[in-house]
Amino acid sequence: MTPHPDRIAQLTALALTLGVAELPAWLRRNGHPIGIEVLALEAAFKVKKGQSGPTVDAATVGRDGDPMPLVYRYVDAARLLDISESTVKRLVAGGDLRAINLAGARCIPHDELVDYVARRLDAA
Q1: How many Cβ atoms from other residues are within 10 Å of residue 57's Cβ?
Q2: pTM of the predicted model, to two decimals?
Q3: What does each of the 124 residues of the chain score in pLDDT, given as a tens digit?
């Protein structure tokens, strides 16, 4: 499913106003879904190693004190990427996504999802 251009424009304006790191917390607080567009924005604002400029820190806490998720279970990662959970499992098994064990659950770190989307954007 391709994100609607109007939604991308709105999210970009919000990210520039609030800061990319605070966008997910603001969306959750206001009842809006967090989808692949947010990950794509984070990837677009993430600066590659050796460059200067803003970076996205997954551990950043928003102004309201609401922390951004550091990891996502497979089902949540699948929802964010708008793919199936079995596709997430295949990506992990194939080495395209890295997962960790956390409290008995397999999870994908937030930065890994952002990096995956950035790699896909670079390949496009």
Answers
A1: 13
A2: 0.53
A3: 555 666 666 777 666 666 666 777 777 777 777 777 777 776 666 544 444 444 444 444 444 545 567 788 899 889 888 899 999 999 999 999 999 988 888 889 888 888 888 888 877 7
- Helix (H/G/I), strand (E/B), else coil: 70: coil
**27 CB burial (10 A radius; 0-12, 13-18, 19+):** middle
Confirm if 52 and 22 have CB atoms less than 8 A apart. Answer: no
Say which residues have a Cβ less than 8 Å from residue 10's Cβ, sequence separation at least 6. none
Q: Three-state DSSP class for 28?
A: helix
Tokens 């206001």 belong to 30
Q: Shortest CA distance to 122 belongs to which of 58, 40, 1?
A: 40
